[in-house]
Write a structure and sequence with these properties.
This protein is of the alpha+beta class. Helices cover 41% and strands 26% of the residues. The chain contains eleven helices and twelve strands. Strands 4, 5, 8, 9, 10 and 11 form a six-stranded antiparallel sheet that branches. Strands 3-2-6-7 form a four-stranded antiparallel sheet. Helix 5 packs parallel to helix 7. The longest helix has 46 residues. It is globular, with a radius of gyration of 24 Å. It starts with a helix and ends with a helix.
């Protein structure tokens, strides 16, 4: 049956295969098709096909800075797609022994409501400055006076609706290393109200091993608000990396995590698996906090006991 199918395909003119079949496929299907025969492998490797898929999947990849970065990848848009389409897994690989230092991080970000694109932006971050290396790592996209309107009604019941309908893609690109990684989960892993402002915060996070046995979360966060009964507004779109104590990693430490994530294994965008990984991270975070509190209480007891002993000894003199 397979040989018969290959024979039928081989009988078609290559232009027909490319212009009427392959250009209608999505990324995963095109990748699978390339494994069927050497002819399909050759035809499926056309960069124009993969460029169209990348641009339709992530409109931000049409930006000149992103296109220039992708051109340096081993197989251009095909390599970029294989890096960016699956989410990074929680398994860490060792960094390449002589990996060049990261000079520039490019963020290619797209926000959707259902299948409608509502925001797209590319931002470049210089990573060589001392300020970046030592300061908490955070990338903000929306200007203070800017707001992104989402076609959702802002009211008391909109949080779960926003969680279900809004999604984010945040791809970090290192052109010098010719690698990329999508740090945002396929769907929001958490939705909550800010304790002070009552704004809605949607978290799209993947959990990555930092290399010391403790995981960290790479999170893209949407902060949404608005007037009651009016349209939902996205007021902040930010990305940062946090450890289990809730501390934001410095630029230098974050680059190590991002570098490992770019070289790490990939997994399918399974919403359930990503939420379970995030929930496990939260449980480990609570356990870490409890251990720290126990250590602090034990240290307090030791200090109190030592103080009492010294006081008693002084009283006996």
């Amino acid at each position: 049956m397979l040989e018969h199918f290959k024979g039928k395909i081989a009988a078609l003119h290559p232009d027909i295969i490319q212009s009427h079949i392959l250009n209608r496929l999505d990324g995963p299907t095109l990748a699978s098709t390339s494994c069927a025969s050497s002819q399909l492998l050759s035809l499926s490797s056309d960069d124009l096909l993969w460029r169209h898929i990348c641009n339709s999947t992530w409109p931000s990849t049409a930006h000149p800075a992103v296109r220039a970065a992708i051109s340096s990848f081993p197989s251009a848009h095909r390599s970029f797609y294989s890096d960016s389409f699956p989410s990074v897994s929680s398994t860490r690989r060792r960094r390449a022994p002589h990996a060049p230092p990261t000079q520039l991080l490019i963020s290619a970000v797209d926000v959707y409501c259902d299948d409608r694109l509502i925001y797209s932006k590319v931002k470049e971050t210089d990573t060589l400055s001392g300020w970046f290396q030592s300061s908490p790592f955070r990338i903000d996209l929306v200007d203070p006076k800017e707001a992104v309107n989402a076609p959702l009604k802002f009211d008391g019941a909109c949080m779960e609706l926003a969680r279900a309908r809004l999604r984010v893609s945040w791809i970090l690109i290192d052109a010098r290393k010719r690698r990329a990684v999508n740090i945002a989960s396929a769907a929001a892993v958490e939705a909550r109200r800010h304790w002070l402002t009552e704004d809605i915060q949607l978290r799209y996070a993947t959990v990555v091993d930092a290399g010391d046995g403790e995981p960290v979360q790479c999170a893209a966060v949407l902060t949404c608000g608005g007037k009651d009964g009016g349209e939902l507004q996205i007021r902040e779109i930010s990305m940062q990396i946090e450890d289990m104590e809730g501390k934001i990693l410095t630029g230098a430490d974050s680059l190590g995590v991002i570098d490992a994530a770019m070289d790490g294994r990939r997994m399918r965008n399974e919403v359930k698996a990503q939420r379970e990984a995030f929930e496990m991270f939260l449980r480990m975070k609570i356990q870490s906090r409890e251990r720290k509190q126990r250590r602090e209480r034990s240290l307090d007891m030791v200090c109190i006991a030592a103080g009492v002993a010294i006081f008693v000894k002084i009283g006996m003199l």
